[in-house]
Write a structure and sequence with these properties.
Largest sheet: 5 strands, mixed
Helix content: 40-55%
Number of strands: 13
Structural class: alpha/beta
Strand order of the largest sheet: 1-2-4-3-5
Strand content: 5-15%
Number of helices: 18
CATH class of the largest domain: Alpha Beta
Distance between the termini: 26 Å
CATH architecture of the largest domain: 3-Layer(aba) Sandwich
Number of domains: 2
């Protein structure tokens, strides 16, 4: 049995009923097999066993009072996965689907994503099964304050610096930062994604979506192609999707789809960015509202999707940007995308494609960038925010955007060159995983047990 397979079996045995974590470990470890064969030191120092085990798992109760005076209880988590390269870094997710296994998979992926940026960042993830939807501003504030009251003791600008994720935007970051400051009497860069008026970075909101498009352009450029003129399918309708759409327009492409948990929009004339921002950033409404405002857009509810499929990926396109959530694009979706002429898939979300879908993309030889590489623009900009906080400066939007573009090009070059080094040119899953893992693993060896 190979070392990679031993590690996969170990992860499954030690973490029962955590399917997403098992999936993430398997995807990474199988692609590391050629590295383990070439470099026996990683097995000698048991790096595989160490890197799949979080350094610390924090689980806690989050009691809060609703607007009717009733007591509510949620569960909070912080998975501090690996600190070999720097302080723990990774977002908070507030969503009913949040479980320990979900956050472990995200923290594991975050470790290698942060490594790929070339910045001094460890990997972590956290959150709660709390759902901000349907809650009042006061209820969200009270929940965030209770959440931070327990967690603040585990955070610090050189210890652990969380950010936002699904369900956690500027509003939630603000309430948590205020409570941290109240508890510690310190105004410091302990959270990223803050408002620019009090320590946030310009371009942070745009960073993940912009970065995914920069990655796509790099992948096309190496094959002497470009995004200009391409029809693009985009899933999701949060920050990542919105600013993927914005940057695609800047490159001359035409995004035509969006989705949320209730359904999807197909707008053949191209997504109306102004309406999208009004609906999602101002009204905080569903995509049904977008369909009301754009009469030529077609709305399809989830109940009308093809059986076992995501209707977003049925729309003919040359490039696809999954920007919603994990495992939203399956084997059938992948086959449909290829049949419709898709030549590029660039993941704005974390692990949005199932393992079988990834295998189909790799076998077809299309340009495919996994989330740990393609969506790293967000965490890279979080580190840029940390740097600005440490020096008490604020950089211009143009300066931050330029740095994001440079970092995404560096990530592409690293995974492209690593794939060629191991005799699998164009296999950016292997390239990203080996490039990200090697840096973390070598640091762990050098720092000792």
């Amino acid at each position: 049995m190979s070392y990679a397979r031993e590690l996969i079996d170990r992860a499954v045995a030690m973490n029962p009923a955590e399917g997403e974590f098992h999936q993430a470990v398997e995807e990474v470890m199988l692609s590391l097999h050629p590295l383990f064969q070439r470099e026996p030191k990683y097995q000698k120092y048991r790096i595989g066993e160490r890197v799949i085990e979080p350094e610390r798992q924090i689980i806690f109760a989050v009691p809060w009072i609703d607007d009717k005076g009733g007591m509510r209880i949620n569960r909070g988590f912080r998975i501090q996965f690996n600190s070999a390269l720097g302080p723990y870094k990774g977002g908070f997710r507030f969503h009913p689907s949040v479980t320990l296994g979900t956050l472990k998979f995200l923290g594991f992926e975050q470790t290698f994503k942060n490594s790929l940026t070339g910045l001094s960042l460890g990997g972590a993830k956290g959150g709660s099964n709390f759902d901000p939807k349907g809650k009042s501003e006061s209820e969200i504030m009270r929940f965030c304050q209770s959440f931070m009251t327990e967690l603040f003791r585990h955070l610090g600008p050189t210890t652990d610096v969380p950010a936002g994720d699904i369900g956690v935007g500027g509003r939630e970051i603000g309430y948590m930062f205020g409570q941290y400051k109240r508890l510690t009497a310190h105004f410091e860069g302990v959270l990223t994604g803050k408002n620019v008026k009090w320590g946030g970075s310009l371009a942070r909101t745009e960073a993940t979506g912009y970065g995914a498009v920069y990655m796509a352009e790099n992948m096309l450029k190496v094959n002497k192609k470009k995004l200009g003129g391409m029809v693009c399918a985009v899933s999701g309708s949060g920050n990542v999707a919105i600013y993927t759409v914005e940057k695609l327009y800047q490159y001359g492409a035409k995004p035509v789809t969006l989705s949320d948990s209730q359904g999807m929009i197909h707008h053949p004339a191209g997504i109306n960015l102004e309406v999208l921002k009004q609906v999602k950033e101002v009204e905080r409404a569903r995509l049904t509202r977008y369909a009301e405002l754009c009469k030529d857009a077609v709305y399809t509810p989830v109940k009308s999707y093809p059986k076992g499929r995501n209707a977003v990926w049925s729309v003919p396109c040359q490039a696809a940007f999954p920007c919603a959530t994990q495992n939203e694009l399956n084997e059938k979706d992948a086959k449909q995308l290829l049949a419709n002429g898709c030549i590029l898939v660039c993941e704005g979300a974390n692990m949005p494609s199932t393992a079988k879908a990834v295998d189909i993309f790799l076998s077809a030889g299309i340009a495919y960038a996994p989330g740990k590489a393609a969506n790293a623009g967000g965490v890279a900009t979080s580190q840029l925010e940390m740097a600005q906080n440490a020096s008490m400066q604020q950089w211009s939007f143009e300066m931050v955007d330029k740095k994001i573009k440079e970092i995404m090009t560096q990530i592409f070059t690293a995974m492209h060159d690593t794939a060629k080094e191991f005799g699998q040119p164009g296999n950016y899953v292997l390239g990203a995983n080996i490039a990200g893992f090697r840096k973390v693993a070598d640091a762990m060896i050098e720092q000792g047990i």
